[in-house]
Amino acid sequence: MKNVSVILLLALVATGCTSKATARLQEQNAYLAGQNLVLQQQQAQAAAQMAGVRIVGAVQNPNVPWVTGLTLAQAVATANYIGADEPTQIIITRQGESATLDPKLLLNGADFPLEIGDVIELH
């Protein structure tokens, strides 16, 4: 019987007995890791919203926060165009590449999806 007790004790030591304090510390570390992950995700989302798109021209709000599915018409409306005359040209710059659009396309109902970091010029 003494040999069985020694073998069980050795098996317990070999497999690693976890104390209540160690278990509690592991729980706290896991909880904090989860909290940090959520905070990082929230910060990334806030950074993306702050990045948004920029409108250059006669507008009240040149920085339009990013939202999923943002379109050119939505961005121009959010920027609140205040020019005396309607724009005659719209230039969208994305990653260094520019495309020119006729503003009449927007007035006729066409719309274009935007991406984070786009720059829209209203001339």
Describe the structure.
- It is a single chain.
- This protein is of the alpha+beta class and 123 residues long.
- It has 2 domains: 15-49; 52-122, Outer membrane lipoprotein wza domain like (Outer membrane lipoprotein wza fold like).
- It has 4 helices and 5 strands.
- The chain has helices at 2-15, 20-51, 72-79, 103-107; strands at 53-56, 63-64, 90-94, 97-101, 119-122.
- A 5-stranded mixed β-sheet has the order 2-1-5-3-4.
- A hairpin with a 6-residue loop joins β1 (53-56) and β2.
- The radius of gyration is 29 Å and the shape is rod-shaped.
- The N and C termini lie far apart (94 Å).
- 10% of the residues are buried.
- The mean pLDDT is 85.
Give the spatial strand order of the biggest sheet: 2-1-5-3-4
Residue runs with pLDDT of under 50 for 5 or more positions: none
Helices, by number, come to 4
Number of strands: 5
Q: What tags apply to this protein structure?
A:
Outer membrane lipoprotein wza fold like; 123 residues; rod-shaped; alpha+beta; 48% helix
Short description:
The protein is an alpha+beta fold and 123 residues long. It has four helices and five strands, in the order H-H-E-E-H-E-E-H-E. Strand 3 and strand 4 (97-101) form a beta hairpin.
Question: How do the helices and strands line up, and which of them pair or pack?
Answer:
Blueprint: H1 2-15, H2 20-51, E1 53-56, E2 63-64, H3 72-79, E3 90-94, E4 97-101, H4 103-107, E5 119-122
Parallel strand pairs: 1-5
Antiparallel strand pairs: 1-2, 3-4, 3-5
